[in-house]
Design a protein that fits this description.
One of its GO terms (molecular function) is transferase activity. This is Phosphoglycerol transferase. The protein has 22 helices and 12 strands. It has 536 residues and is an alpha/beta fold. The strands form 3 sheets. An 8-stranded mixed β-sheet has the order 5-4-6-2-7-8-3-9, sandwiched between helices. Strands 1-10 form a two-stranded antiparallel ribbon. A two-stranded antiparallel ribbon has the order 11-12. Strand 4, helix 13 and strand 5 form a beta-alpha-beta unit. Helix 1 crosses helix 2 and helix 5 packs across helix 6. The longest helix is centred in the N-terminal third of the chain and has 26 residues.
């Protein structure tokens, strides 16, 4: 049957109206229920203007609409926005270059297939409309410009290109203070840094989220809780968040400046010193432990490049499970991971000299989380959708982990840091999350820190100097990277220039990007011997 058959009119118009409603509600973050009134308005206009059946009809013209490609780009943008909450071109670029194999997002494959099929049907329906209605043949040429001008995906490309011609593309680089430890305490403390996947401090608002964050509230009473730690551009995914908090700089992908831009990365931000490099120079034994694959997004490469002795991920930890089937699509469940982490910390504590342990959980991963069996036993049945169940699970497991370490005497002369790696991407509580300002989780206790709350307008790049000073190290002017210690009076870039001002400078920056990656093309790929350090 020809696509121009009159019987296609209302099915095509209904499909186009549904797609339009879905697009509008996704982009402006409305509940998808509002798709229905938008569909109603679209159909009313279609009936009133006789779209697809004009009174003075002309012969159908077998043309291909100019706007097919812009519409396809919009559909891609809508898929990304509905999946993650926003289009982050930097995250897309970095993951393609650092590696997207061994990820746990297999559940999104069906979602992507459905979007692709609906997108193809949408393009077919629009082609029918343009061919049978000469008014749309005229209108869609204007529509092309609108679609290209307002696509958020193209905004990102334009902003990346703007850095090349910016009048001042080194504004942030001039404010970058290379991290240096000027003086160390006589008895340097151990460090336990636990990243909670997507468990942002916003969940502490009981009016919106009930008791989901209560265990972390109780944990924070042990020491200092930092409020106002915002998320800047290029830090909104796991590697971006970890690099910002450990290197004092946002993760600006190598992108087009990398000589081998279409080849996988062999090193991650080799041009700057990060927490691991600084502690390695102080004689620390260091390890990273996470439930997901070390290969995903360059995690293993980053820690290997920056002073860590051992990195344990899914590949190494699965072998230790009593039940090999007790895993989730990303990797090791958090109760298993943290049980193993206690064992590793015991071993680290037995050896002379200070150690640093960095862990990364999985329970809070959007859109619904991956609660562990220990949480089912405590919280009851999980409906498979409610992210707040997973937030509560992650908070409980983090608190239990710290309490176990304390009970075994493993927190003596130790700074403990609990932080979110980044703000959550789109999840089942999204409408409540975006109702107001959002902030990351950051709390520190031990090593003589007082108890209390520090309210500062800051970002995750301020974590590095704050952490170093909390450990008793002396750093130049209370600064490291782009960050300022929140334990000092030094002003943060967010306090001085505002979040929007900081982001605007970041998006126009080129020199700092070159600093981050300046040695990447000169350094050889890791050898087999180097890769062995990532194995258990």
């Amino acid at each position: 049957m020809s696509i121009r058959h009159p019987g296609h009119r209302w099915p095509s118009l209904i499909l186009l109206g549904l797609c339009l409603g879905y697009a509008i509600t996704t982009v402006i973050a409305l509940p998808h229920l509002f798709t229905l009134p938008i569909l109603g308005l679209w159909l009313a206009l279609a009936w009133g203007f006789r779209w697809g059946a004009p009174k003075q009809a002309r012969a159908p013209d077998k043309v291909w609409p100019w706007s097919l490609f812009p519409l396809a780009l919009w559909w891609l943008c809508i898929y990304v926005t509905n999946s993650y909450g926003r289009v982050d071109l930097s995250a897309i670029l970095f993951h393609f270059q650092a590696g997207v194999t061994d990820h746990g997002g297999t559940g999104r494959i069906l979602y992507a297939i459905v979007h692709t099929l609906v997108g193809l049907l949408m393009l077919a329906a629009f082609t029918w409309l343009v061919r049978v209605d000469h008014r749309w043949r005229l209108l869609e040429k204007v529509l092309v410009m609108f679609l290209l001008a307002f696509n958020p995906l193209l905004f990102g490309i334009t902003r990346q290109g703007a850095a090349i011609v910016a009048e001042d593309d080194s504004w942030l680089d001039r404010r970058y203070v290379p991290p240096v430890i000027e003086k160390a305490p006589a008895n340097p403390p151990n460090l336990i840094l636990l990243y909670l996947e997507s468990i942002e401090g916003t969940y502490a608002d009981e009016a919106r989220f009930g008791d989901a964050y209560d265990d972390l509230e109780l944990l924070g009473q042990r020491g200092l809780v930092f409020h106002g730690v915002r998320q800047i551009e290029n830090t909104g995914w796991t590697m971006g968040g970890m690099i910002a908090s450990q290197c004092g700089a946002p993760l600006m992908p190598a992108g087009l400046m990398h000589d081998n831009q279409f080849e996988p990365l062999h090193h991650v931000v080799p041009g700057v010193n990060c927490l691991g490099d600084l502690l390695d120079a102080q004689g620390y034994r260091q390890m990273f432990m996470g439930g997901a694959s070390l290969k995903f997004a360059g995690k293993g490469l980053f820690y290997q490049d920056h002073g860590f002795d051992r990195m344990l991920g899914r590949e190494q930890l699965e072998k230790r499970l009593e039940d090999p089937e007790y895993v989730n699509s990303w990797g090791i469940n958090d109760d298993s991971l943290l049980d193993m982490a206690v064992t590793e910390i015991r071993q680290l504590a037995k050896k002379p000299g200070p150690f640093a342990f960095v862990g990364l959980t999985l329970s809070g991963h959007p859109p619904y989380g991956y609660p562990a069996q220990s949480c089912y036993d405590r919280q009851g049945e999980f409906d498979g959708v409610n992210i707040l169940y997973s937030v509560q699970c992650s908070a409980f497991l983090a608190r239990r982990f710290i309490e176990r370490l304390e009970a075994e005497g493993l927190l003596e002369n130790t700074l403990v840091v609990v932080a979110s790696d980044h703000l959550s991407m789109k999840n089942s509580a999204w409408q409540r999350l975006i109702e107001g300002p959002r902030e990351n989780t950051l709390m520190m206790f031990g090593n003589g820190l007082p108890r209390g709350v520090i309210q500062r307008e800051a970002s995750t790049v301020d974590t590095l100097p704050t952490l170093l000073e909390a450990m008793g190290f002396t750093i130049s002017s209370h600064r490291a990277g782009l960050g300022a210690s929140l334990l000092s009076q030094a002003q943060t870039l967010v306090e001085r220039h505002g979040l929007e001002g900081f982001n605007a400078r970041l998006l126009a920056e080129n020199a700092l990007q070159q600093r981050l990656w300046k040695q990447a093309d000169d350094m050889p790929p890791p050898t087999t011997a180097q890769n062995d350090t990532a194995r258990d």
